[in-house]
Amino acid sequence: MISRFFKTQHEEVGHMHRFMERGMVILFASVCFLLSGITAFAQDVPSDYQEVLKALDRKGDFKAGVLKVNIPRNDLKMTIQGFSTPTPFGFGGWIALTKATDGTEVMMGDLVLLQEEVDPVMSALLDNGIDVTALHNHFFWDDPHVYFMHVHGMGKAADLARRVKPGLDLIGHITPVAPAPSTGGGGTALDSDKLAKIVGHDGEQTGAVYKITIGRDDLGMKEHGAVINARMGLNTWAAFTGTQEDAAIAGDVAMLENEITPVLKALRKNGLDVVAIHHHMTGDRPLVIFLHYWGRGPAEKLATGFKAALDELGKGGSARGGAH
Asked: Which pTM was predicted?
């Protein structure tokens, strides 16, 4: 009886030992599987894209054939109408790369920028061959106020990383420039004749504002047979106010797609700030993009900057638009 009891106990211990051994084997196999899965996932990022992440010193992931590089604005404490809004709510900037059929890379992105960062970042990108394709806000009542800049580039992955990096490196590192003190209304009145001569077009005086408007009749745009001319909003303009020594300029430039980058470069080279890039119309043919700008300084210098942008329009010849 006693020997049978000990024999039974011995058998149960043996079964338990074998069960534990099998469990350890299964656990070990599971860990190995998980580790191999993690390794495989890491290896899924192509080597040229791994180099992009390394060059930009940014984190990202690779899915659906696209490398997404994260440029979140974790440095900003955003609120909308006083309501705290964390970065993932809509303040996570990014650039993305994917391969074209010829093996080159297509890069697109959306950068979240403070007002004082917009034009320095834009200049850095333009100077390195990256296109800026849109600039606008996504929110009302956001504090601090941020803008969203869309970018585009083509080339090899490593080259795109090199070209976009100077712009990305400025994000979060721009010190706002203090506005110049007002002259208190003193100075020489605006010389509209001089401004018109520089720009090459006459304008109209309305109170303290002198405004020059130039149509884009070269585009031949129509809608339902109606001619869409300057009076219908298809125009480029510049408004001046202030004095000859201390003036302000604001305006709008109507551009074809291939004119956007040359116009942006001309404005930035002449110290004018770009404040928006967007559509005014839908279904228009040819497609026209509108750019808004602002600047302050001597009136003749501002007019020269506007003229430089104006000279970039219409270089490609007539782009006649059909009716729709």
From this structure: 0.83
